[in-house]
């Protein structure tokens, strides 16, 4: 079911409504205008030397090797960006993954973008008339979900899709979405979208840095209005999955995040899982973005433990600054 979803993922039309910034290097701009080039993301000092960060990189690499030796992980990528200093770490940056449910964030952004010109769409009622439960094959079941025969507003579906990772809500929203609008979002952020659904080797197509752009444009409020960016991040803070990033930070820490889980089966047996957790950790003094994407033949609990350990190490570093 997630594979089908990936075929629809892409972007939203961007108007010339952006604050002017200056950027020393690596600006990400919208390219589909004749005269203006709106700025979405500004990577001011991506290679700025930071002795403390280099020490953290070494510790993260050592931890990842330990997790691999313990057979908790077979592949992992970590993207960290400190919002206060713009320092960052990108470990195994070329590793690509099946995005799984991480792409649900893009659907939320697309609908909120539409709501900027037609806010009433969020209160539009839609009946779930499908006879199929799209959550039936999921290993981590949603605690709340759209039920067959019931009617929900678009806003309610967005909340269920994000907070509980409900696939039913996702498919209802996709059914009323123009695929070309989603495609524009991915094009604007220069994030790849899977195009070949028939080849298993084509499933792994996205990196942790790619996923980071969805969270960064929300945090910077450069793609949606301030109010809608705030709304999107508030919903992400209410995600009920707590076994990854959240488990690695002190209780009560606000985390705006989304997890995703996918699996590869052979003869009915799961031979590999991909468990990801990406989001913004609102450390009281040093807020940061952390994205962890994994592949493993181990159990879900083992992978969760590894993600938690990485999250803990990063928080401890941010807390020591």
């Amino acid at each position: 079911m997630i594979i089908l979803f990936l075929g629809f993922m892409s972007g939203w039309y961007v108007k010339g409504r952006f604050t002017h910034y200056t950027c020393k290097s690596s600006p990400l701009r919208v390219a589909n205008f004749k005269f203006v080039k709106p700025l979405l993301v500004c990577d001011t000092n991506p290679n700025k030397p930071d002795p403390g960060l280099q020490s953290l990189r070494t510790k993260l690499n050592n931890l990842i090797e330990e997790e691999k030796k313990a057979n908790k992980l077979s592949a992992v990528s970590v993207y960290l960006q400190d919002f206060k200093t713009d320092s960052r770490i990108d470990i195994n940056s070329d590793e690509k993954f099946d995005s799984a449910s991480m792409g649900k964030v893009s659907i939320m952004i697309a609908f909120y973008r539409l709501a900027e010109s037609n806010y009433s769409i969020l209160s539009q009622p839609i009946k779930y008339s499908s006879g199929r439960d799209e959550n039936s094959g999921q290993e981590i079941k949603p605690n709340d979900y759209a039920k067959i025969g019931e009617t929900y507003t678009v806003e309610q579906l967005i909340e269920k899709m994000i907070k509980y990772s409900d696939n039913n809500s996702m498919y209802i929203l996709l059914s009323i979405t123009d695929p070309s609008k989603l495609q524009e979002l991915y094009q604007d952020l220069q994030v790849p979208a899977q195009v070949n659904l028939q080849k298993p080797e084509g499933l792994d197509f996205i990196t942790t840095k790619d996923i980071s752009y969805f969270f960064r444009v929300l945090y910077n409020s450069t793609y949606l209005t301030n109010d809608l960016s705030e709304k999107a991040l508030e919903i992400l803070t209410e995600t009920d999955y707590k076994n990854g990033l959240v488990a690695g930070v002190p209780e009560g820490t606000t985390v705006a995040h989304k997890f995703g889980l996918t699996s590869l089966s052979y003869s009915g047996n799961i031979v590999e899982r991909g468990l990801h957790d990406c989001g913004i950790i609102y450390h009281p003094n040093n807020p940061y973005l952390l994205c962890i994407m994994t592949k493993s033949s181990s159990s879900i609990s083992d992978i969760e433990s590894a993600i938690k350990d990485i999250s803990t190490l990063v928080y401890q570093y941010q807390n020591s600054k």
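The beta strands are 27-29, 39-42, 75-82, 88-91, 125-127, 151-153, 255-266, 269-281, 288-295. The chain has one domain: 2-320.
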